[in-house]
Amino acid sequence: MMLRSLLLMAVAAQAVTPATPIMPPRDPRNWPTPVMDKVAPTLPRLRRGAVLVLSKTNGFRDPDQIAAAKAVLADLIRKQGRDVFETENAAVINPRDLAKFSVIVLNSTSGTIFDDSQRAAFKSWVEHGGGVVLLHGAGGDPQYDWSWYPQTLVGAQFIGHTGRPKQFQQGTIEVVDRTNPATRDLPAKWVRTEEWYSFDRVSTGNDTHILATLDESSYDPFPERVRMGKLHPIIWTRCVGKGRVFFSALGHKAETYSEPLHQKMISGAIRWAARAEGTGC
């Protein structure tokens, strides 16, 4: 009798215990195996004012977007009369090689890509006057194990973006500061389709200048946790030491890099970060 009761209790317990969901495997195209680079690439001869485009991804990766952005960035930089070196090898972040660049573009970099020595070299280079352009995913990790990166370099922590089935929506960007060369040629109201990023706070301090905000009434901030309210910055600049830092949350899809206005913004951001135009820091 006791054995029968125990069996019945076990069956009942199994009936109410929820099954552990089976998650589908991650697509390796979007989630590559993380690699920490130790041997720096060989650099070509570069003229003063060269730009480094780093597209390293140890977290989420959109290969089509990365490839499209690489091509457009190289073209925009060369049209400015600057040399460009594009790599996915983060070991290029060392004092000897960094001295050859005036600007680093982080092209939707993700995950932990720098070791301790590379972090120290990058931080020192920025603080001593280097220019950084952070594009889309370069500020879009849900968490960072290097607090300096979101807190000081970006100035805010990414908390999420519009989700499925409303991940990509048409929305209105309000360009509130058109004195920066990145936003000078943009319309006051810039309507485009995007995966809209949100952050835990409005970036302040470090001479932050908010260049453009997102009108949340122009799209559906879904899920609710990605709603920031009336002030929802989407493009801004900061000073980190003597360095100039530009961040844009735009640019998830590959085709966005063929948009003329998006190209004008990126080109202007590089000129500002290189100190060719604009003020600050």
Question: How do the strands and helices of this protein lay out in sequence?
Answer:
Layout: H1 2-16, E1 50-54, H2 63-79, E2 84-87, H3 95-98, E3 101-107, H4 116-127, E4 131-135, H5 148-154, E5 158-161, E6 168-175, E7 189-195, E8 197-199, E9 209-215, E10 233-240, E11 243-248, H6 260-273
Parallel strand pairs: 1-2, 1-3, 3-4, 4-11
Antiparallel strand pairs: 5-8, 6-7, 6-9, 9-10, 10-11
Helix pairs in contact: 2-6
Report on this model:
The chain has 281 residues and is of the alpha/beta class. 25% of the residues lie in helices and 23% in strands. It has six helices and eleven strands. Strands 2-1-3-4-11-10-9-6-7 form a nine-stranded mixed sheet. A two-stranded antiparallel sheet has the order 5-8. Helix 2 links the parallel strand 1 and strand 2 (84-87). Helix 2 crosses helix 6. The N and C termini lie far apart (82 Å). 39% of the residues are buried.
